[in-house]
């Protein structure tokens, strides 16, 4: 009954809406990160809330609603021999909220865009339906993706694991978030990143892909801080805060 309702709504949407093509989507690599690292990056750079609601997958097509600040989009992604292609159309925000009510699942997150050499890393704090912290880096080619060396503050790679995609989180949730430990190497790498110092391989790629989505959030999406601007802090503040976080993590670590 419910599946039939989703299918009927989905088919009526696809047949009635004209989508604008955004071409082949960039390749991505996604990693877990420590919650402490995510909080410190957000404190330095600011965040924007975003909400996505997903319809059940129809064959090789994925359709979802994306809300950011005062804009909303209905997005269609399809798989093909050359990769995944994306088409989207802007919809009135009230209509998008109505569509969320009939989606099969939602994911609510705060995003920070962080420059890493020639790339932009998307640092996401997932708030619903589970708590999780991720960083995603986009690439213009398979060679660039393979050549990229993850930074020390990146945790385990989850690229290709469906349960760590926004769709997987929205439709299935996550029973338990993996623990990502902190270390001195993590601290030093994060400080280097915030100070715009990177390993040589992080600078290798040229012609990085442009972001496909505007920086923003929802109505209950929108800048997570009151002004929408990043809080001004120094690298010394970041290092001090990271040291405190590491101390808390060590004290809370269970003893065997």
Give a brief rundown of this model.
With 256 residues, the protein is an alpha+beta fold. The chain is built from 7 helices and 9 strands.
How would you sum up this structure, described in words?
With about 260 residues, the chain is of the alpha+beta class. The protein has a single domain, classed as Hypothetical Protein Pfu-838710-001 (Beta Barrel). About 30% of the residues lie in helices and about 30% in strands. It contains 7 helices and 9 strands; from the N terminus they run H-E-E-H-E-E-E-E-H-E-E-E-H-H-H-H. The protein has a 9-stranded antiparallel sheet with strand order 1-6-5-4-3-7-8-9-2. A hairpin with a 6-residue loop joins strand 3 and strand 4 (about 60-70). Helix 2 (about 35-45) runs antiparallel to helix 7 (about 235-250) and helix 6 (about 185-195) runs antiparallel to helix 7. The longest helix has 18 residues, at about 235-250. It is globular, with a radius of gyration of 19 Å.
Query: Which geometry do the CA atoms define?
Result: globular
Task: Output the CATH class name.
Answer: Mainly Beta
Number of helices: 7
CATH architecture: Beta Barrel
SSE topology string: HEEHEEEEHEEEHHHH
Number of β-strand runs: 9
N/C terminus separation: 50 Å
Task: Tally the structural domains.
Answer: 1
The proportion of residues forming helix, as a percent range, comes to: 25-40%
Spans of at least 5 consecutive residues with low confidence: 203-220, 225-233
- Name the CATH homologous superfamily: Hypothetical Protein Pfu-838710-001
The biggest sheet amounts to: 9 strands, antiparallel
- Overall mean pLDDT: 76
Radius of gyration: 19 Å
Derived structural class = alpha+beta
Region (Disordered): 201-256
Protein name: CYTH domain-containing protein
Biased composition (Low complexity): 219-228
């Amino acid at each position: 009954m419910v599946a039939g309702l989703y299918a009927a709504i989905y088919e009526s949407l696809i047949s009635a809406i004209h989508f604008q093509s955004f071409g082949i989507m960039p390749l991505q690599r996604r990693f877990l990160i420590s919650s402490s690292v995510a909080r410190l990056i957000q404190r330095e750079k600011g965040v924007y809330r975003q909400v996505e609601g997903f319809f059940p997958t129809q064959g090789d097509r994925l359709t979802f609603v994306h809300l950011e600040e005062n804009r909303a989009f209905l997005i269609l992604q399809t798989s093909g021999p050359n990769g995944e292609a994306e088409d989207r159309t802007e919809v009135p925000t009230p209509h998008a909220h109505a569509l969320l009510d009939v989606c099969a699942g939602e994911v609510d997150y705060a995003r920070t865009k962080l420059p890493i050499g020639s790339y932009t890393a998307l640092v996401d704090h997932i708030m619903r339906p589970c708590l999780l912290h991720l960083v995603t880096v986009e690439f213009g080619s398979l060679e660039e993706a393979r050549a990229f060396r993850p930074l020390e503050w990146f945790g385990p790679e989850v690229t290709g694991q469906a349960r760590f995609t926004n769709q997987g989180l929205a439709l299935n949730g996550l029973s338990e978030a993996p623990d990502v430990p902190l270390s001195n190497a993590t601290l030093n790498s994060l400080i280097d990143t915030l100070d715009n110092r990177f390993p040589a391989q992080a600078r290798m790629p040229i012609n990085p892909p442009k972001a496909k989505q505007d920086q923003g959030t929802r109505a209950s999406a929108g800048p997570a801080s009151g002004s929408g601007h990043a809080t001004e802090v120094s690298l010394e503040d970041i290092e001090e805060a990271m040291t405190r976080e590491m101390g808390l993590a060590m004290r809370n670590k269970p003893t065997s």
